[in-house]
Amino acid sequence: MKRFLVISSILILVACNTGLEINTECVLKHTAEMVKFENTAGDIEEAFVNLSWTWVYTTPNGDGVIVERQISSDYDSIAYVDSITSLMTFTDTSDLLEPNLAVSYRLGFLVGKSVDYFVTTDCTIPGTQHFVQPDTEFITIDTTATATLTINFSALAGFDETDVAIYETSFSQIDSILNTPIEELLQILTNPLVDTTLTNTQLVVYGADALFGTLSFYIIKISSSKIGQLDYITDTSIGLRAFMRRTP
Length: 248
Known about the structure:
Shape: elongated
Structural class: mainly beta
Distance between the termini: 75 Å
């Protein structure tokens, strides 16, 4: 019994450092994500907090789970998950979520007209990424074999590495990109032309003449993630910038 208690205590300590909250009833995982799409018409920012929880022993009885959020002094009810299942999820996409905001969530069983709170978790929305270069949607790239594309961005506090990827899209108009929801835009960014991880803040892409055409927009995606000791991603910040190539 003493050995079990020691192992449980270690698990709880490690979990709290990796986006997990464990108590005698459930295991709750939270991930906070900040996305910023920079463009000359006006930057677009969206934040998400994903909550998922599962039961340690058995699925409990109850009518559903109340999700409450605390930003200032009080908890406010923001959602009701209306069935108790083995794995439950909720995503907070509120406009109240901002970069570097500290936020707390509380979950409670709804049984009849009473609420029994069973877990609380805290998280902080990550800061936003920022492109220094390119700073426009139209980039001049010459037609020589030595043509390059240079990407510069600001270092994001609290993150040691940044993944930089470039994707070709089917968009030929910047307005079409701006009118696409962020969630949908992220889903279509697959099969990158360039994908590398940096510990500094500059990437020089060689062979740009052969890599980038002039008929469609490309999207640069920079992303940084904090990964805990149990390999659970707890916080992610993503920056997007669209460009179309022009020749001299």
